[in-house]
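User: quick one, sequence for these tokens?
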């Protein structure tokens, strides 16, 4: 029985859409697949066969990486989308970066809604994240500004699109793929929060050889398998500055002669990042204390 190679582009209710040689196949997984691999994830490269009228997943090929937040595998990078509305929660952005850095997955910040953002917004985001990410790109899904550059960054790669609800991820996807016309959400006039229009992670093949993974918007999630004392290792700028700390295993909280604390005292932009670091450190520490 000949096995066909493909990529899982969507999974709902035990059924998986698999893309292979320009065609989509609806498959279900054999029990042994779920037993040996825990679960099938969007982005998995798989082997499947035809059994009667059905197509069945038989193998999940080795993963290059596997993220939990967002749940996707085999990506070349992650686009984290932020916008002036809704108010960006940079603590959540930091968590995405930490989770990605833990698996050596490059992160790019995409500043959307340039048509309503003032210059200071994009500049402030760039100032805080240019040392933490591969790039900071500015786009407008409404006017098309920056979309060509974004599309070029996806060519022959598998890139994941993630961020808070209503930052415009689906609008960006529609701009990248004219004619797709996916429904987009709206901001609540009362809360400035978005409606969840993306319910499941799904991969879309682009005409330039790339794949873009659309993920559900988030408002809350946890760091994955990160210890509080190791947190500073996953922030590039903090890690570099920490080489000047007195103690090798400095947590940059209560230790004396801490280069990170000194940098925060003299650098207002870095201090914003440092205060978020302290909040994440406290969150992890409290969970660890409760566990033990």
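Assistant:
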């Amino acid at each position: 029985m000949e096995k066909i190679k493909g990529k899982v582009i969507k999974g709902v209710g035990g059924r998986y859409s698999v893309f292979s040689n320009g065609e989509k196949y609806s498959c279900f997984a054999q029990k042994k697949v779920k037993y040996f691999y825990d679960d099938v994830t969007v982005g998995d490269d798989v082997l499947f066969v035809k059994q009667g009228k059905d197509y069945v997943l038989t193998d999940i090929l080795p993963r290059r990486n596997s993220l939990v937040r967002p749940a996707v595998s085999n990506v070349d990078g992650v686009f984290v989308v932020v916008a002036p509305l809704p108010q960006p929660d940079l603590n959540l952005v930091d968590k995405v970066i930490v989770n990605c850095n833990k698996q050596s997955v490059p992160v790019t910040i995409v500043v959307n809604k340039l048509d309503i953002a003032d210059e200071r917004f994009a500049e402030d985001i760039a100032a805080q994240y240019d040392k933490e990410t591969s790039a900071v790109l500015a786009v407008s899904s409404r006017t098309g500004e920056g979309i060509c550059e974004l599309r070029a960054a996806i060519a022959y790669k598998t890139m994941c699109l993630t961020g808070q609800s209503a930052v415009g991820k689906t609008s960006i996807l529609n701009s990248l793929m004219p004619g797709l016309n996916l429904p987009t959400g709206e901001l609540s006039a009362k809360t400035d929060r978005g409606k969840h229009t993306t319910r499941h992670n799904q991969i879309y093949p682009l005409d330039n050889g790339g794949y873009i993974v659309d993920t559900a918007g988030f408002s809350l999630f946890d760091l994955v398998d990160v210890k509080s004392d190791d947190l500073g290792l996953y922030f590039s700028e903090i890690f570099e500055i920490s080489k000047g700390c007195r103690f090798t295993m400095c947590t940059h909280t209560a230790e004396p002669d801490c280069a990170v604390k000194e940098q925060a005292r003299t650098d207002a932009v870095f201090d914003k990042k440092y205060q978020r670091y302290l909040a994440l450190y406290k969150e992890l520490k409290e969970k660890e204390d409760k566990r033990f």
